[in-house]
Amino acid sequence: MLSYKTGTVMSVINVIGLIVISLTCCFSSQSSQQTEYYANLITQRVLNAQKYQPPDYYKGFDVSEKYTAPKDFGVFDFIVVGAGAGGSLLARRLSEAHDWKVLLIEGGGTSDDFVDIPAAFNHLLTSEYSWGFKTTPQKVCEDSIGSICTYPRGKGLGGTTLIHTVVHARGIPSDYDYWEKLGLDGWSFDDVFPYFKRYENASILKDIDPDYHGFNGPFAVENYRNSSEFEEAFIAALGTFGITKTDYNGQKVYGYGRSQLATHNGKRNDAFKCFISDVINKENLQIQDNSLVTKVLIRNATAYGIEFIHDNNRYIAKATKEVILSAGSVGSPQILMLSGVGPANELLKHNITLVKDLPVGREFQDRPGISMYITTDRFEEADLKAVIAQYLQGHGPMSVSQRTVVAFYKNSRNSPVEIMLLDGEGFTVYNNSVNFGKTGLKSFGIRTALLKPKSVGNLTLASNDPLQFPVINTNLLGEPDDEESIIEALNFMADVAESEPMKKFNATIKDDTACKVFPFRSKRYWKCYLRTSMSDHALHPIRSCKMGTNPNDSVVNNRLQVHGISNLRVVDASVMPTSVTGHQFGTVFMIAEKASDMIAEDHGNIINSSR
């Protein structure tokens, strides 16, 4: 059985894992019906995650009558494929033009109250809310069966915003100015900044630069409301290395800040909830869930609809204006290639009729992330009744995915690096399945990610069968410079963990991996460490449908239109030409906001009149 590589280790500080361990003794006397409901929900869902066997194909979409003609699903002005960060926001904006009929179609279904718990994210990675993708053998997965990593991507109304870590970090101005230098007119920071402000509502954020935030958008952002002595020590430790306080979504990004979170009253603020829930009953917006899009229909180099599977039947939906793919960095390139848009040799290999030769999937890229765990004797056993009560009041450890402090800095190679505190305040885990088999240890963690890696992978088709998962080669740490950079980041994490402010916790870096045969902190030790379960993907994939000016090395133009195909756009992280100094979903929101204006311009309409 394969599972997400950091799942067991991260449970050391995962509140949900603790709740399961302690449920029997702690919840039997609960009188609150709401608390009892959450106790039962958490118990069942965590047990489900522990037993979950991810599918190895798009299970549930088998067609009962393969040779019958697809059924007619109707005609729309716009069809948006994927209800994640890009698709949910874009569908909302398009529906603001009341004479446009919009179809938003999604492979998964609705979420539940368990998904709303930010601290539950690690269990959601191995659940029905993730498609179940896997990578080809990777260096960072050498201690997994066949060196294969699982590769979670969100499945459901909300997409990957249902399962991510809720940290909102949008990048720095130079990230987007570089896009303009690549020839992408209209994508400088000055151009895109208004779109960042448009979606955001930062009304309750603290310690921010108000000139760099929006306050009237539908997407609420808030700080984690609790603090701990570990946070204070971590912040002091960063200060000893010259990392100072900042608003990392403001003018000065490099520095530390308490996490700005995609939560509202302590609950996950996913894209569908944020952008669609209050417009779901609009007559010109139709939501179709549990439906797998298998191809875009293209005639005479013009997209005119989609084919999809729902309830074991095939359907065709037609679009009079545009088909817009927002299926993410895995889904969008797969759909394009199944539709005949992609590398000619790849399509020929799978007997797919070539419509347009474009480098779809050729530059798939993700980031390396790695965690370090520290033991301490300064935890107190959690009062779980109080923990649930805090969550129901909108705060407490269940309202954050452990990432309570976020910092950005540049390493000696002038490459941006992220470092985060994984705060385990108040949580003690006693079972032997975590903490490397040692009972009674108490842990918190530090995590780092290389934000602008040089290594590039690829995404290809397994076959022309739309029910087969694509082949994902992330090539993580494929470039030697990336490995050297992440080793430097590991040494910095160790310096922080061993600094004077951390000594009062009797903090000790765990050295219980197979790598302890090498001298601690030696290069051989770190090279080994990178290949253990401590290392993984940051799960921020980009570039598989890259934006650019030349069809020989890009898939869409600066207006997100697929080169050489009319009425077909891509609006998601796959179009990002380079990585940004932050997390991806804020950038995708911006891309979708900008796309809505470009679409309105191209079709001579006025939308977003409510702004």
UniProtKB/TrEMBL annotation:
Residue intervals of the Glucose-methanol-choline oxidoreductase N-terminal domain: 328-342
Gene Ontology molecular function terms on file: flavin adenine dinucleotide binding; oxidoreductase activity, acting on CH-OH group of donors
The keyword Transferase belongs to this UniProt entry's keyword annotation: no
Name of the molecule in the record: Uncharacterized protein LOC108735944
Binding site for FAD: 160, 293
Cofactors, names only: FAD
Catalytic residues as annotated in Swiss-Prot or TrEMBL: 540 (proton donor), 583 (proton acceptor)
Keyword vocabulary terms for this entry: FAD, Flavoprotein
Similarity-based family: Belongs to the GMC oxidoreductase family.
Entry superkingdom: Eukaryota
Entry keyword annotation includes Flavoprotein: yes
SUPFAM superfamilies, alphabetized: FAD-linked reductases, C-terminal domain, FAD/NAD(P)-binding domain
